[in-house]
Amino acid sequence: MIIVTQHLRPNGETRKLQIERTREIEDLAEELDDHYVELACELLPSDKVFICSEKDGVVIFSTLVPNGPGVPCILDSLIKETHKRVIGHNLEKFDSLENDFTVIDSDIPF
Whole-prediction pTM value? Predict the structure, then answer.
């Protein structure tokens, strides 16, 4: 299971979601967790979902996608990309890392 912090409207309260994904994705997410990387999401009033990975309050990677059945696949892509950036580059601090705001795999049907 992957743990994702969901930010709730209207007051920003949070709750932890447990999301079941493939073993490969869950292993990547667990390794990110071992490096204190958190995954978070929020459903916006525009009915889009903001998903991000962050460490020490700094966003590593983020995306904004339409709400729908394609969101878990986007989460998978975000986890893979974050893993490449954090584990693949052995980054310990993210002070100077430029934040990305990208729609990942926008061809996925929603």
Answer: 0.79
Q: How far is the C-alpha of 66 from the C-alpha of 23, rounded, in Å?
A: 25
Side-by-side strand order, sheet with 2-7:
14-19, 2-7, 38-43, 48-55, 58-66
| DSSP letter, residue 97 | P
Q: Tell me: the pLDDT tens digits for 30-65?
A: 999 999 999 999 999 999 999 999 998 889 999 999
- Whether the CB-CB separation of 55 and 40 falls below 8 Å is answered with no
Query: Which phi-psi region, left, alpha or beta, contains residue 43 (left: φ > 0; alpha: ψ -120 to 50)?
Result: beta
How many CA within 13 A on the CB side of residue 28? 21
